Amino acid sequence: MNLRENWRIVLLCVFVLASAVALFAPMAMGDGGSGLQYGLELSGGTSIRAPLIGMTAENVNVSQNVDNENRVRAAIASDLNVSERDVNFRTQERAVEVYSKNVTKGELASALSQQGLDVSQDDVRRGVTQQTREDVVSILDEKVNQAGLTGGGARLTTSGTGKHFVVIEVPNQNRTEVLNIVQDRGQVEMVAHFPDGNGSYREVSLLTNEDFVNIGSAQPAGGNQPNPFVSVALTDEAAGNYSAAMQEFGFTSREGIANCPTGTARQDPDNASGYCLYTVQDGKVVYAAQMSQGLAQEMESGDFVNDPSFIITAQNMSEAQQLSINLKAGALPTELAIEENGTTYYLEPSLAQEFKLFSVIAALAAWMAVSLVVFIRYGSPRVAVPMLGTAAAEVFLLLGFASVVGLALDLSHIAGFIAVIGTGVDDLIIIADEILQQGDVATGRVFQNRFRKAFWVIGAAAATTIIAMSPLTVLSLGDLTGFAIVTIVGVLLGVLVTRPAYGDILRHLMLSEQQRQE
Amino acid sequence: MSVTDLPDRLPEIDYTKYTNRQLAAIPLAVLGVSLLILAGWYVMNGVPVSLGIVFTGGTEVQIVANDSPSEIESNLDFQVDSVQPVRGSDRYIVTTQSTNTDQIEQSIDSAGYEEISKSETAASFGADSVQLALMGVAVAFVGMSLIVFVLFRTFVPSIAVVISAFSDIVIPVALMNVFGIKLSLGTVAALLMLIGYSVDSDILLNNHILRRRGGFYESTYRAMRTGVTMTLTSISAMAVMTITAFLLGIPLLPEIGIILVFGLTADLMNTYLLNLSLLRWYKYEGIKR
Hints:
The complex is a heterodimer of chains A (about 525) and B (about 290). Chain A is of the alpha+beta class and about 525 residues long. In chain A, about 55% of the residues lie in helices and about 15% in strands. Chain A folds into three domains: about 5-45 and about 350-515, Up-down Bundle (Multidrug efflux transporter AcrB transmembrane fold); about 45-180 and about 330-345, no CATH class; about 190-330, Gyrase A, domain 2, CATH 3.30.1360. Chain B is α+β, with helices and mostly antiparallel strands and about 290 residues long. Chain B folds into two domains: about 5-50 and about 125-285, Multidrug efflux transporter AcrB transmembrane domain (Multidrug efflux transporter AcrB transmembrane fold, Up-down Bundle), CATH 1.20.1640.10; about 60-120, Alpha-Beta Plaits, CATH 3.30.70. Classes of the chains: A alpha+beta (about 525), B alpha+beta (about 290).
């Protein structure tokens, strides 16, 4: 046997070795498990896929002037009856976004026109800008990671009809847990509630997500703290403003210190008496605090501005965790339209484990069925065994491929593997029948000729399969992308590597047989 | 035994006994009946094939319960479309058009069932997916047809392959209606797979008859020996996978498998009756014209 004549077999061996390394090296290095990754269908967990709420007016002459912008934005927001936070100017994209599902295109166009921003209704479209989508994905990703949901993450995908979706996948967690983290915007505010001196009360929002830095993890109650809490610090600018406002509003005066009925204030924040500091999350008061003696003194003396760190207290541990996550990851500019346009998927991890084992059994059963038919047809193990071995090698190479590119295996991929066994064996049968015709194949020329003939059919069949599967790789049809990719790669690997090698193996078998007969 | 002495375990069909019309009549009749089923379904239901919840929108929940399907249906206070038991377990798959997740969750909770998997699709999302899936199948079919025409460069043999492939897809879709299988992502994948899979034996047959030396019947016999083995291997692999996956309660795989079994079986008939009769007509009469 020389290498040059048997390069096809050598190539197959190299590929099998490479796959073995990709699959088993992580196991040998002690990482536990093979180099394969599993998707939600085989590991269990939650997947959420939804577009973002909002609409965008494009080609708007958004002014560069910040003061003016704030004024215009406030006017548009009140016109559309949405929160000011729901109106966003994208100067670079020359676009105005509104994050609300209750605004129509006409309403937005007319609200902009009233502010001298001429926009026709045709310039308004559903959906948000690319920048907003990317912001949302990175914030969601951060939130999922901050929540300690390992292996989870968010990404963007575009459907074949050009719609954009955000996909969040979190292994091992159920839908409610994931929704708790990603559904709300995570807007955190510190609001002061205090008497205005004329017998009524004022509420002023003092701090939002962006003002906080050095955010700690949620800590359980203990020591001096009767409640779970999150330690935070403020940016220099926010610290100055906050301290000044506290003093101006009277929180640091004798009257303001420790003067808030915290229990009742949280229940009924609008009608509380005294000087209260509300922690507001997505518009809901989650905690009411009072000014402490110590903090008031620090503010009066100016020590607070030099070292603006304090703690935010929460009612319970899970709220503290939520606060910490929201402050660390930041607030989402808009929400996911899960109820209206989304899909969610949840699978219990133990069931997924079962699927993993069972799908291997199903694949093995399919392979056995193929073996049986091949043995019945050819009778000779000398033809059948290499055939089945080659088909198995094809799947092994595919697993190696999945491991190298980090493809997370799902049921659709398993279906793809089984489809590949099917097409693979079909092609091997074509090769066997072509090469094993009556007559001498000892001469290289005859063998090459027959091999080429067989390959015309195999190549044609492979081309049609690849063409038929290719729409699925670009259409965003759920799991089917994985199925299509595995089938296409499998067909390519088969046509380029394994099936040619099988031809060579058959030739050697026949040669050795002829030699024995002589 | 030498490896070159392959036993002939395939019965030889004497095609000379039948006219082209007789050969083509059976597959064309089956295709006609299938199209009628689809048309009838369309008239009655507004769609040629029933759509699964990925396409209509709705929720599919898998629960663990010790009750019978009818008890489950009455214990849940949302509109239940179907309750299917999962073989070999106390699990049930409940489908509903509702996407009110909170209500569904509460209802399952209060009935004392354990929810182990759930997938939910909003209606508008589903409508988009139908379009996408149809587009995918159409693009795949046109792409396959183009390749076939490029490969053979003659009209009759190429169109014979395309008609066979068309029938290979239509027959399983009609059978889906007969057996009450709904169109899902899995079945769409299987239909696309069929487009690629089923033309293999047609290409092999055309190749042997048009591009090889030897008489028509000799070439046919050789092509059949290889082609029938191929298709039978695929059918047995898919049938075994379908049955195993069904018994083990794995989702997705049985849907893909059963459609491929239907399609490949249809392909046996279409290739060796329909495609063959068209080729024979082309070889003996068409070329002379």
